[in-house]
Amino acid sequence: MQVEMDLNKNFRTRIAPSPTGEDIHIGNLYTALINWAFAKKNNGKFIIRIEDTDRERLVNGSEERILETIQNFGIIPDESPKIGGKYAPYRQSERIEIYKKYAEELIEKGHAYYCFCTKERIDEIRKEQVLKKEVSRYDKYCLININDFSKRIEKNEKYVIRLNVASGREIILNDVIRGEIKFQSDLLDDQILIKSDGYPTYHMAVVIDDHLMKISHVIRAEEWISSTPKHILIYEALGWELPIFAHGPILRNPDRSKLSKRKNPVWSSWYLDEGYLPEAVLNYLALMGWSHPEDKEIFSIDEYSNVFELKDIKPVGPIFDINKLKWMNSEYIRALSEDELKKKLIHYDKSLSTLLDDKNNLILLTLAKLRMRTLKDFKILISDPQEIYIYSEEEKKIIEILIDKIIAIKVWEKEKILDLLKKFSIEQNVSMKMMYLFLTGNSKGLPLPEMLEWRGKDITLSNLKKIII
Ligand code: GLU
């Protein structure tokens, strides 16, 4: 079934990261990209809301890093905790009173209730249900038996507020990407809405905020599908219109397992630190579960947002292959002008500015551009001898002859150098690969004649002499 989109509505999308990890997960950056593109395509607004109500899992500095990384990738929100906006605050820990008010409204309407059960009792019920192979859910004891809840609250007894899930209901989720999905309310637990620390659970806060912030499309990863029927029940209980839901795929490792730290770096800033260009990473992410209508592989995110349709996303987990991303990154680097590359390199590594601001070294950019796959590669490509190689006596003799030949060369130019190297390689029966090692101390790097021309005759000779003493 196709989900109808109301084109008169103001399109508002959001991501709602929880600051419970080191940084934003690459899968969440993907979700951010599709939310951003979809809002942009429809002249809408893209919002970032921080969901920090799980106080136990909070990681220090995580929120700042998440917001900074999203910005470093160039995904700019219209509203966020930093920017503010009409529906501020955009940080859930600053909205506690709002959730409380709606929880009370739900209680008044009979859709929620106070629960004073201890953890021990809940564990007990669970154990029994597991033994009987029943669905694990709360047994509504407090809903049925407790009338004097105000007194107990006054006495400072600990409580939670639970959703009163009606039995025998069928809940239908119409998902833009996946079509219709049906759920049975009998399989749902009476979800906790407000925890004993007074903070709301994710389920409660997400519904209240998506509604109050006028989110028109909730676009998130498939791991949230099973939560959606609970959300639908809360919307219904409060008499609110549902947003349009779309659950995108979860990225997978090449062996199809869920993208995880062990097989692929998952923190988005890692890719920037390793010298991937944000535009290349976003381009690669855009291709996850989606293809360009003209089958293009390389395109900007602005182009992406122009042609992007939510319904075209395929629900099956796409493979996130870092080698493919590396290839794409090298294509992006190759397409840069020397000047653009220089700027990016200096932005990436400030220590390169002295080298690159010297006009004599600009040739390095031209040469390196063809061999770099990431910005990090640049330093490696131009570095001085790195590999430790023990030369045999026979090799040392050959190097001595090479030194004489180089001394004899009159014009130090790449063509002449190439001639010499070719002849020498045939005469002495030494492979070009070996010559590369003799002359650079590395097994790979920039094209050899050009590199030697740039280094100059004196340094080339002194490097060779170091080998034979
Ligand atoms: N706070 C949830 C997360 O960590 C948000 C899920 C949603 O988008 O509803 O991703």
The total count of strands amounts to 9
Number of helices: 21
What is the CATH homology-level superfamily of the domain at 268-382?
Glutamyl-trna Synthetase, Domain 2
Mean pLDDT: 94
CATH architectural category of the domain at 268-382: Orthogonal Bundle
Question: What's the order of the H and E elements?
Answer: EHEHHEHHHEEEEHEHEHHHHHHHHHHHHH
Secondary-structure class: mainly alpha
> Proportion of β residues?
5-15%
Q: Extract low-pLDDT stretches.
A: none
Could you name the CATH topology of the domain at 268-382?
Answer: Glutamyl-tRNA Synthetase, domain 2
As a whole number of angstroms, the C-alpha radius of gyration is 31 Å
Q: What's the CATH C level of the domain at 268-382?
A: Mainly Alpha
3D shape: elongated
Question: Which ligands accompany this protein?
Answer: glutamic acid
Task: Tell me the strand order in the biggest sheet.
Answer: 3-4-7
Distance between the termini: 78 Å
Relative helix content: 40-55%
Major sheet characteristics? 3 strands, antiparallel
